[in-house]
Amino acid sequence: MPVPELDAAEIAQLLADHPQWSLAREGKAITRTFQFRDFSEAWGFMSRVALLAEAQDHHPEWFNVYAKVEVTLTTHDAGDVGGLSARDARLARSIDGIV
Fold first, then answer.
1. Would you say 23 and 32 are in contact if contact means Cβ atoms under 8 Å apart?
2. How far apart, in whole angstroms, are the C-alpha atoms of residue 67 and residue 81?
3. How far is CA 63 from CA 72, 80, 81, 95, in A?
4. How far apart (Å, rounded) are the C-alpha atoms in residues 87 and 57?
């Protein structure tokens, strides 16, 4: 069963609440880049996010090089072809809470 996509007003509110995140993939995802002091700090962040994601049963797409972590959130089963959902908003809020 598809997950409801956020509408335009909900996406605008998501971005207002989380200004460091930006739209990606033609509005079907949000992304944020995190810069840390070193690899160990970046890896610790990723470990904390992994625990949050597992608890929420919603997992990010991410890319890590040394002290940089790029996180993309989207809901693959939202709407007809995927998009942003309340799951993404909840995980973005949780991630922002640990930074």
1. no
2. 33
3. 9, 26, 23, 15
4. 9
Report the 10 Å Cβ neighbour count for 8. Answer: 8
pLDDT of residue 15: 97
- Name the phi and psi angles at 20, rounded to 5: -80, -10
Going from the C-alpha of 67 to that of each of 24, 33, 72, 80, 94, the distances in angstroms are 22, 11, 17, 36, 20
DSSP-assigned states of every residue in 14-68: HHHH-TT-EEEGGGTEEEEEEE-SSHHHHHHHHHHHHHHHHHHT---EEEEETTE
Query: Tokens 């996406």 appear where?
Result: 11
Could you identify the residue written with the tokens 């990606």? 24
Predicted confidence (pLDDT) per residue in 60-99, tens digit: 999 999 999 999 999 988 776 689 999 999 999 999 999 8
Burial classification of residue 10, based on how many CB atoms lie within 10 Å of its CB (0-12 exposed, 13-18 middle, 19 or more buried): middle
Q: Which residues contact 20 (CB under 8 A, 6 or more apart)?
A: 32, 96
